[in-house]
Amino acid sequence: MPTASNVRTERFLPAVPEHVWDSIREEFTLPPAADLEAHFQVMGDTEAMQQAVRVFIGEGTFCPGFQLNGGLLHEPVLRLFEGALDLKVPHNVFSAWMASPLPGAARGGARPVAQLDNLPLLRDKLRVFADRSRQVEKRR
Question: Which residues sit opposite 56 in a β-bridge?
Fold first, then answer.
């Protein structure tokens, strides 16, 4: 049943298909934000959650595991996420983009999560993605 917060989220965030969340959950984990916050508190890094990518699924808030490297936030993901926020790409959409094949990649091709060593390329691809998404939104 839709709730006020659910309807608001669906209205302002493009819908990400459930199978994308299932895929991220299976490949990278998708723990509740509270679990990741507790993890960082144990590590003594109470400010890490301010930088973490969070996604909003139903009534829950989760953190895609692809942003972690050795239990710490992975710097290339943080840089891309900052760029996504500057481009006004919503958290959920950014997370889905990270785990999806890039346009023009070979069949079953490269995803941003697999190319984190090439930030300039990914920044360009993210910019193109954001521009294309805005064009689609304008047509609606």
Answer: 61
